[in-house]
């Protein structure tokens, strides 16, 4: 089974606006100001045998190789009712990370925060206590205000909990797609390889015919057919989709040149860089070609025009400074066939070093590690701090890109003061840094960015322990959005 590469789209959800008014004594009282609410609902992950007929929403599919024979497993999420209400709370903090106002309690597995109650330049923090451990996520007011993607958010929890009903719906229902048949482009010329590829979201079938009895796919997708000039899938010859262009493939008779001269990304394995070329049609993405880069160039083939599909491209690897992962993604603009890996235009990676961010007075200063300033985009700083005796904090802070981040204080009042002091972030903490550089701060919404760090569980802080919950279907939409947004991603982890 070929697992589709996916990430999550969160639709903008308008939040509840509440106000009240009153009167008396012959006069009127001005209405109370309306508040912008954000609702966070908590769910417990549950591993089950994958059943395509189940109504439970699927959040991940993976193969359990420990079973003989191997089994497909799925991740569902279950309601927890009131069972963890006393262990999950929200805290408002000012720009110095100091708590202000009263904490917000969880009620029936959900909590609601008011944007207006977060001080300017301050934060809101959601934390879960699990025995001697505290897991937390903080968001700056600025990053929450920049888009509406977090107005109604599902978050995973780690504590054992009463297991209620599963979240349902929003699944890509599998189906058998039959009687596929395509015609060659009459304008095609040359000597292509005879191999034909049929691609769905679930599998790839190779053939020497342009007809296929059946392929396993998902509901609403239009499967892709492609043929190449080469024995591998690097030089496209013709392609098409079921129900597209009268099921006649389009000849890619034009040669273009992808340019990487403005990229700082280097291959991880001492091999030439590879550009991944993908096509998106009817909200489904398919792998179109893998281009080898030589002397900052890579040849690719394309048709005269597109017929409703989008062509996206990406390149991944590392940078000159050790310890950093890097990737760049963009879309070929309409009425253009230009491919340029231009991460330099978003951030100069020669400002990055093989060095850990510094910490002083619970403020993380990343400039020794990466010389950021006022670039546009999103930033994630996460740390792990233990006391060596079993007590532990894992805390993630989401902001726009900034060289310094004040870490909001957590509520550690359940612990002795000596234990709590040892759980504050210091220069010895394990620290994860992630940056998504974009042309504008709002190009990628926060919920989409967060999905890159989901399913952290009890692993290291490269992923969120309390993570956003999004279905595979939502993730597919998000991946499509990110793939078509010019962005440059950098990440490192220091233990």
What are its keywords?
495 residues; mainly beta; six-stranded mixed sheet; 32 strands; 41% strand; disordered N terminus
Short description:
Helices cover 5% and strands 41% of the residues.
Largest sheet: 12 strands, mixed
Strands, count: 32
**Percent in helix:** under 10%
Low-confidence stretches: 1-27
* Overall pLDDT level: 92
- Strand content range: 35-45%
Give the count of helical stretches: 4
Shape: globular
Radius of gyration: 25 Å
Global structural class:
mainly beta
Strands side by side in the biggest sheet? 8-7-10-11-29-28-31-32-25-24-21-22
Q: Give the terminus-to-terminus CA distance.
A: 36 Å
Model description:
This protein is mainly β and 495 residues long. The chain contains 4 helices and 32 strands. The chain has helices at residues 141-145, 417-421, 446-450, 472-483, and strands at residues 17-18, 22-24, 27-29, 35-49, 60-64, 71-79, 88-93, 99-105, 110-114, 123-130, 133-140, 152-156, 174-181, 196-199, 204-207, 211-218, 224-228, 236-241, 250-251, 254-259, 274-281, 284-292, 297-302, 310-318, 325-331, 358-360, 363-365, 377-386, 392-400, 404-406, 430-438, 487-494. The strands form 7 sheets. A 12-stranded mixed β-sheet has the order 8-7-10-11-29-28-31-32-25-24-21-22. Strands 1, 4, 5, 6, 9 and 12 form a 6-stranded mixed β-sheet that branches. A hairpin with a 5-residue loop joins strand 7 (88-93) and strand 8. The longest helix is centred in the C-terminal third of the chain and has 12 residues, at 472-483. It is globular and about 75 Å long. The two termini are 36 Å apart. Residues 1-27 have low confidence and may be disordered.
């Amino acid at each position: 089974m070929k697992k589709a590469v996916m990430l999550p789209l969160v639709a903008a959800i308008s939040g509840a606006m509440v106000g009240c008014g009153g009167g008396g004594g012959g006069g009127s009282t001005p209405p109370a100001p309306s508040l912008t609410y954000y609702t966070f609902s908590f769910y417990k992950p549950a591993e089950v045998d994958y059943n395509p007929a189940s109504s439970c929403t699927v959040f991940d599919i993976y193969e359990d190789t420990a079973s003989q024979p191997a089994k497909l497993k799925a991740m569902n999420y279950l309601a927890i009712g009131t069972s963890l209400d006393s262990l999950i709370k929200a805290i408002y903090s000012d720009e110095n990370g100091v708590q202000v106002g009263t904490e917000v309690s969880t009620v029936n597995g959900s909590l609601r925060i008011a944007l207006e109650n977060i001080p300017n330049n301050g934060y809101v923090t959601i934390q879960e206590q699990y025995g001697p451990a505290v897991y937390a996520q903080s968001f700056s007011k600025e990053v929450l205000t920049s888009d509406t993607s977090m107005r109604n958010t599902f978050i995973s929890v780690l504590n054992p909990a009463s297991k209620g009903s599963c979240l349902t719906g929003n699944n890509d229902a599998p189906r058998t797609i039959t009687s596929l048949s395509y015609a060659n482009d009459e304008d095609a010329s040359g000597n292509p390889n005879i191999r034909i590829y049929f691609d769905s979201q679930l599998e790839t079938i190779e053939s020497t015919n342009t007809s296929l009895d059946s392929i396993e796919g998902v509901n609403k997708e239009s499967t892709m057919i492609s043929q190449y000039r080469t024995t591998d899938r690097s030089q496209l010859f013709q392609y098409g989709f079921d129900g597209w262009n009268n099921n006649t493939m389009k000849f890619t008779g034009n040669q273009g040149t992808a340019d990487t001269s403005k990229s700082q990304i280097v291959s991880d394995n001492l091999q030439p860089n590879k550009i991944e070329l993908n096509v998106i049609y009817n909200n489904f993405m398919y792998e179109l070609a893998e281009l080898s880069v030589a002397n900052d160039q890579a040849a690719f083939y394309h048709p005269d025009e597109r017929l409703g599909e989008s062509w996206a491209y990406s390149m991944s690897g590392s940078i000159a400074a050790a310890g950093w992962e890097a990737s760049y993604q963009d879309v070929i603009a309409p009425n253009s066939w230009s491919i340029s890996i231009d991460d330099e235009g978003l951030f100069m990676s020669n400002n990055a070093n093989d060095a850990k961010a510094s910490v002083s007075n619970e403020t993380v200063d990343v400039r020794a590690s990466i010389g950021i300033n006022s670039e546009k985009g999103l930033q994630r700083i996460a740390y792990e701090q233990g006391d060596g005796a079993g007590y532990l904090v894992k805390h993630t802070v989401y902001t726009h890109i900034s060289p310094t981040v004040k870490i909001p204080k957590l509520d550690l009042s359940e612990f002795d003061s000596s234990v709590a002091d040892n759980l504050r972030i210091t220069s010895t903490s394990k620290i994860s840094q992630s940056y998504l550089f974009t042309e504008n701060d709002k190009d990628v919404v926060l919920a989409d960015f967060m999905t890159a760090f989901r399913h952290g569980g009890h692993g290291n802080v490269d992923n969120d322990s309390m993570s956003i919950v999004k279905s595979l279907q939502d993730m597919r939409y998000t991946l499509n959005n990110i793939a078509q947004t010019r962005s440059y991603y950098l990440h490192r982890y220091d233990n």
